[in-house]
Specification:
It holds the Pfam family DUF3990. The structure is a single chain. The chain is α+β, with helices and mostly antiparallel strands and about 160 residues long. The protein contains five helices and seven strands. The strands form two sheets. Strands 2-6-5-4 form a four-stranded mixed beta sheet. The protein has a three-stranded antiparallel beta sheet with strand order 1-3-7. Helix 2 links the parallel strand 4 and strand 5. Helix 3 packs antiparallel against helix 4. The N and C termini lie far apart (about 35 Å).
Length: about 160
C-alpha cells in the first residue's frame, strides 16, 4: 500500500442517504478504528454496504487529498498490530489519529475478532480463518481536520 499523504484519492461511502457533508458521530457501538466517518477506495464494497439497507441504498463519492499535516495510521494488511488495534477500538479504546486506513473487519471477520477477544479461538486460529476472506478496505476520518480534506463529488442510488 502506498503512502496516502498528498495523493488524491476517490473514495466512496455506502449508506441509506445522500451525505454531502460527512460528520463524526458518536454512536452506540465503536467501529474497527473507533468513532469516525468511514469510506473505502473500493466502489463495489461501498455498494455492498449500501445494499444492506432496506429503505434506500446510496453511494456518495468524494475526492480527498490527505494533508501531510494529519496524523495518519496505515495498516497495509491484516496483521497482529491491525488485530490488536481493532480489538482496542472495538472495546472503546481511543487513539490520537486524524485518519486510519487499512483492511475492514467485515461481519464475518468481526465474528472471528469477537471469538478471539472472548478466548474462543487463538490468534493462530483467527489468522487461519481470516486469510480466506476477500480484500476489503476502509479509511476512517476521526477529526474535523481530516474531514476538511474531502470534496463531495456526487451520490448515486442503487435502489
Amino acid at each position: 500500500m502506498e503512502n496516502i499523504t498528498n495523493n488524491t484519492l476517490t473514495i466512496y461511502h455506502g449508506g441509506d442517504e445522500f451525505i454531502t457533508n460527512p460528520e463524526i458521530r458518536i454512536g452506540k457501538y465503536t467501529k474497527d478504528f473507533y468513532w469516525g466517518f468511514y469510506f473505502t477506495i473500493l466502489p463495489e464494497q461501498a455498494e455492498r454496504l449500501a445494499l444492506r439497507n432496506i429503505r434506500k441504498s446510496v453511494v456518495s463519492v468524494y475526492n480527498c487529498t490527505i494533508s501531510a499535516q494529519l496524523n495518519v495510521k496505515q495498516f497495509e494488511k491484516m496483521s497482529d498490530e491491525w488485530l490488536d488495534f481493532i480489538v482496542m477500538c472495538r472495546n472503546g479504546g481511543s487513539h490520537g489519529y486524524d485518519l486510519v486506513e487499512g483492511p475492514m473487519a467485515d461481519d464475518t471477520i468481526y465474528n472471528y475478532v469477537q471469538d478471539f477477544v472472548e478466548g474462543k479461538i487463538s490468534r493462530n486460529a483467527f489468522w487461519e480463518l481470516a486469510r480466506f476472506r476477500y480484500p476489503t478496505h476502509q479509511i476512517s476520518f476521526h477529526t474535523a481536520r481530516a474531514l476538511a480534506c474531502l470534496t463531495y463529488e456526487r451520490s448515486y442510488n442503487l435502489r
